[in-house]
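Changelog note: in this version the structure field was regenerated for every chain. One regenerated record is shown below for reference.
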Amino acid sequence: KQLTVATSSLQGSGWGVLAWEPLGKRLIVEQVYDHHGNVGQNTTPLLVFDAWEHAYYLQYKNVRPDYVTKLWDLVNWTDVADRFTKATAATA
């Protein structure tokens, strides 16, 4: 739910990111705005949702929350689990 809210509520364009934060050894949700590098230091992205208009506007118009909800149907959980395993092993 946190990734859905973070991606849906971005002002402008960017990405919603589920990432592994090794210092606290925890999952975090981040909003990355435009092309700025405001991703947490040393975090490892595990799942990234594109919130740029080109990704959803033709089908969903300006209803970004509907688009983000549908993204969950496309997630390859095997890939996400593999990224998580590698990220957590690197900080063990």
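Spot check on this record: The chain has four helices and three strands. Residues 46 and 80 are 6 Å apart (CA to CA).
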